[in-house]
Design goal:
The chain is an alpha+beta fold. The chain has 5 helices and 11 strands, in the order H-E-E-H-E-E-H-E-E-H-E-E-E-E-H-E. It has one domain: Oxidoreductase, molybdopterin-binding domain (Sulfite Oxidase, Chain A, domain 2, Alpha-Beta Complex). This is Molybdopterin-dependent oxidoreductase.
C-alpha cells in the first residue's frame, strides 16, 4: 500500500511539472513587488491580485531586441518578458489591458497587442536593470525592430514606461 501511495505521489509530481504555466499557481514574490496585475485573473497570489518581483518576471518567456525608439537615443537593446507571458502567468482573461505608470499616466490597449504581437515589458536596457530614471522598472516595448510599421503615434501612445500596474478588463 505504501509503495502505491509513493508511486502515485511521484506520478502526480511528475505530471505537475508538465502542466503549462497558466495551469499552475503563481508563486509569491520574494523580493520587492515591481508589478501588480488586477482584474480578471485566475491565478492571483495576493488578495485577488497577481504580484511580481523582478526574478519572477525575468523567469517568464521573453525576448530581446535591438532598436531605436522615439524616447531614447541611438540603437539600444531592450529585454524582458513578453506581455502575454505575464498575463498568462496571472491567468488573465479579458479584451483590454490598461497599463498605469508610477506618475498615474495610463494607456489602454486591446488584448491583441499582447497576444498577436511580441510586446515586451522591458526590464533591461543594454543588459542593465532599468531604473526609474531610465524609464524603468518596466517599459512596454512594441516589436519595432521586427515590425517597422508599428512606428506610429497609435503604438507610441500605448508604450507606457515606469509601469507599476496592469488591469485586465472586459
Amino acid at each position: 500500500m505504501t509503495t502505491r501511495i509513493s508511486l502515485l505521489a511521484l506520478l502526480l509530481t511528475a505530471a505537475s511539472t508538465l502542466l503549462p504555466v497558466s495551469a499552475r499557481a503563481l508563486d509569491v514574490p520574494k523580493g520587492d513587488v515591481i508589478l501588480t496585475v488586477t482584474g480578471r485573473l485566475d491565478h492571483p497570489n495576493a488578495d485577488g491580485k497577481a504580484q511580481f518581483d523582478l526574478p519572477m518576471l525575468e523567469a517568464l518567456a521573453g525576448r530581446s531586441g535591438e532598436m531605436e525608439t522615439p524616447w531614447t537615443e541611438g540603437r539600444l537593446t531592450f529585454s524582458g518578458p513578453l506581455l502575454r507571458s505575464v498575463l498568462t502567468a496571472a491567468g488573465a482573461h479579458g479584451t483590454k489591458v490598461k497599463l498605469t505608470a508610477l506618475n498615474d499616466y495610463s494607456a489602454e490597449l486591446p488584448m491583441e497587442d499582447a497576444t498577436d504581437l511580441d510586446t515586451m515589458l522591458a526590464t533591461r536596457m543594454n543588459g542593465a536593470v532599468m531604473s526609474v530614471r531610465d524609464k524603468g522598472p518596466l517599459f512596454l516595448i512594441y516589436p519595432f525592430d521586427e515590425k517597422p510599421e508599428l512606428m506610429n503615434e497609435k503604438y507610441f501612445s500605448r508604450s507606457v514606461w515606469q509601469i507599476r500596474d496592469i488591469e485586465v478588463t472586459e
